[in-house]
Amino acid sequence: MSEQFDVVVIGAGPAGYHAAIRAAQLGLKTACIDAALGKDGKPALGGTCLRVGCIPSKALLDSSRQYWNLQHLFGEHGISADNAKIDVGTMVGRKDKIVKQFTGGIAMLFKANKVTPFYGFGTLHPGNIVKVKQHDGSEVELKGTNVIIAAGSDSIELPFAKFDGDKIVDNVGALDFTEVPKRLGVIGAGVIGLELGSVWKRLGAEVTILEALPDFLAVADAEVAKTAAKEFKKQGLEIKLGAKVSKAEVQKDGVHLTYNDGKADQQLVVDKLLVAVGRRAASKGLLAEGTGVKLNERGQIEVDEHCHTGVDGVWAVGDCVRGPMLAHKGFEEGIAVAELIAGLPGHVNFDTIPWVIYTEPEIAWVGQTEQQLKAEGTPYKTGSFPFAAIGRAVAMGEPAGFVKVIAHAETDRVLGLHLVGVGVSELVHEGVLTMEFKGSADDLARICHAHPTLSEAIHDAAMAVDKRAIHKAN
Ligand code: FAD
Ligand code: NAD
């Protein structure tokens, strides 16, 4: 006999828990199933993001930034400390405490909103039946008028560098090293490679990142990527582009890597190897025979623009469907689907999803890059402004980077905002808001920005679009 719900959500990551809470808020009887366990072996809600992704990585990025600044930035402020030390156990313990606070917070939110949690692995069967294998071995059967699949994603494993949880790791292992590795190798100069590579570099590891593609951070604006690469080089992050790794052998003295740099085979020996070559949709064991839910060629659950799978009452959201693998993209899809189920006009605007890479300097953007606009033949104009000419950034001792506004050449409508520098993870939302309201570069230029703030770089960059920036030659 199955227990009946209006909505059954599979997965309590960002996409799933948003869907579940919003559905319950809208008066729908909602269940949410999650299989994950925390480091203490107890069920932990919140998905990759809260357990082993966004939040723990930012906790370590912040800790390591303090340590790095103590050694590299505080001196110019006249602040010094003898014998600065790093205690990795305390740092990782602090991260674990934050993770526990937030995963526990989701359980409390479920209780407050009357979402019924089920702790175990869910499999969708025909007829919107979800069978849940609970951690104690028992099975329950749920029937949802609607089922929302929010199963998330897993790290991609390279066949010649299998994760062993010790020497060869993914994000999970790299968030939990017990000491600073002397030599850290990273395969993939993407978001995880750069963020977690930065963490361990700041703490003293020699970090070498091997990237297969010839261009650095090709998804970002080319000028932003170039500036970021220059800053990372200054910090001592070694990034080798066009490096094709073919072998990773664990030996007594470390992991022996063989890669080809386009000219010849090269060797690199590291103490730990982080493989960060992307993630793929999690669908193993998720779908029983005959559900009618289809997977595309990338293994993602196929959905339309409303996250509907084409099977009556079955939806899918977050990392397990097309689109960027970002927590906030999942948040929006989860809310939109819950609202659509309740008969409201749920909607996600894919054109205004911001991207942030939490390195130092931070990298952020929303909208299209110059490369994309050129390729599609859209006429555009740009205005840039450096943080080196922004009083607040200089006063902070963080003058690296710039802001670039891209606007349509004829209508002046903002098509993209690209930033690299201090605090740009927050500043990018000025671009999101402008684009959501279909604003122009002139709108941005005429909005009063407080002085002295970092946001003035956006103001001046917007003015530079029409060659009227005040604080630089146009
Ligand atoms: P997930 O968070 O993966 O959650 C899916 C949940 O479903 C999991 O708990 C899983 O156990 C459960 N599940 C799966 N299948 C079943 C099943 N059959 N039955 C029961 N439960 C199931 N994104 C950002 O926007 N900003 C960041 O700063 C950021 N940093 C990141 C750092 C790292 C190191 C990593 C790895 C990722 C980061 N991301 C970041 C990406 C972000 O974590 C994901 O985009 C986001 O977690 C996806 O949410 P989701 O709900 O789709 O899936
Ligand atoms: P990614 O797609 O960002 O980067 C993977 C990199 O690995 C790419 O540059 C790719 O060219 C390279 N690569 C692939 N195969 C390779 C190989 N065999 N050898 C060498 N290089 C290879 O993937 P990721 O860094 O693993 O992160 C996964 C996803 O998690 C990201 O796409 C992102 O959506 C999400 N994430 C987001 C944030 C954030 O928002 N700040 C942080 C971390 C992760």
Automatic annotation (TrEMBL):
Covalent S-S links between cysteines: C49-C54
UniProt entry keywords in alphabetical sequence: Cytoplasm, Disulfide bond, FAD, Flavoprotein, NAD, Nucleotide-binding, Oxidoreductase, Redox-active center
Keyword DNA damage (UniProt): no
Coiled coil regions, renumbered to chain: none
Active-site positions on this chain: H451
Positions with a binding annotation for FAD: K58, G122, D319, M325, L326, A327, H328
Catalytic activity: N(6)-[(R)-dihydrolipoyl]-L-lysyl-[protein] + NAD(+) = N(6)-[(R)-lipoyl]-L-lysyl-[protein] + NADH + H(+)
Record's GO cellular component terms: cytoplasm
Residues reported to bind NAD(+): G188, A189, G190, V191, I192, G193, L194, E195, E211, G278
An example molecular function term from Gene Ontology annotations: dihydrolipoyl dehydrogenase (NADH) activity
CC cofactor note: Binds 1 FAD per subunit.
Signal sequence, start to end: none
Annotated ranges, domain FAD/NAD(P)-binding: 5-334
Cofactor(s) essential for the protein: FAD
Domain Pyridine nucleotide-disulphide oxidoreductase dimerisation: 353-461
A Pfam family annotated for this UniProt entry: Pyr_redox_dim
Further remark: The active site is a redox-active disulfide bond.
Protein family according to the UniProt entry: Belongs to the class-I pyridine nucleotide-disulfide oxidoreductase family.
Name used for this protein in its record: Dihydrolipoyl dehydrogenase
Gene source species: Lysobacter antibioticus
Gene that this sequence comes from: lpdA
